[in-house]
Amino acid sequence: MPRPHTALAFALVLPLARLCAQGAPSLAPGIRVRVARQVGTLTSIDSQTIVLRDEKGAVLSVTRKPDTPLEVSAGREACGGRCILIGAAGGAAVGALVGVGVNQSLGPTACEEGCGGIVLQSAAVGAAVGAIIGAVMRHERWTPVDIPPQVGVSPAGLRRIGLSLSFQF
Question: Does the global pTM surpass 0.70?
Answer without folding.
Answer: no
